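are you around this afternoon, could really use another pair of eyes. what follows is a protein written twice so to speak, once as letters and once as structure tokens for the fold. i want to understand how the tokens follow from the sequence so walk me through it. anything you notice is useful, everything is just below.
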Amino acid sequence: MTIINRIKHAGTLAARLGAGTALGVGLFAAVAGTPSFALAQEAHQPGPAMWVVSDEDSTIYLFGTVHLLKPETQWRTPGLEAALTEAAELWLEVPNVDDQAAAMPLIQQYGLNIGGEPLSSLLTDEENAQLQAVAAAIGVPPQAMEVMQPWLVGLQVSVAAAVRAGYDPASGVDTRLKASADEAGTTVRGFETLEQQFRFFHDLPQEVQLQFLRQSLATWEEAEEMLDSMVELWAAGDVEGFEALVVDEMQAEWGQLYDVLLVDRNADWAGQIQTMLEGSGTAFIAVGAAHLAGDDSVQSMLEDRGVTVTRR
């Protein structure tokens, strides 16, 4: 297999993660005079957490997803199915989460660094040795990684660790919901484009990209334990536990990457959701569960704008 084919293979893995965790500006100021929207609901449903926002002529469901899952994971509940059936639109982070053909040229445009500094020159001898060991484990020659930007290698390592642990991008919630919507003829929309998502990573300073790569290498061996714990909390609807395990750690360890991946995007999405409320009808929003947990969550930002979000 040629080096470019190896890059394309690696890019497929990275694209799937990118399409699922697509990484905006800062927080939007609260809109003066915005009415408060609410739907009374006392009991929480079992299963992954879901919220609802509504007014006189709009209902919007918010559902947190996991982008890679083990195929046997159970997550579909009667309440979820009822909300999906009711919705006229499905909103994902990107609408074409399953379009690898669209992702490939973007990976080549934003993920490669041909002619620039080789990746190995940016890493210590110990880090290079670790990366070579991981590359051998996933069947990618180190020379292929030399022409990738650090963020792309970090994504590749992260996804490969999950796949090695039995997690499948094709079983991810977003991909499954998209397939169900297509089958049902439900309109699928997105908050972002694939190009925006790749640019989020590409535009990070090199040192932040390297930090992401180093974290991916550091968690290579413990990926399965971490993912299993995360999915267990998510599937049980334990938002507080998920926040402590995932979001709080991201905030403490990721620095600028946390702002890019979560805070800025959540602010943008909150604005888009508020605009949706000015219309009418029912929509179902499914975005990564980390976006719906913690003080910087989409719900928190909506509430700062005077919009009431109720747990179902």
About this structure: Residues 191 and 269 are 7 Å apart (CA to CA). Strands lie at 50-54, 58-65, 89-92, 187-190, 281-288, 310-311.
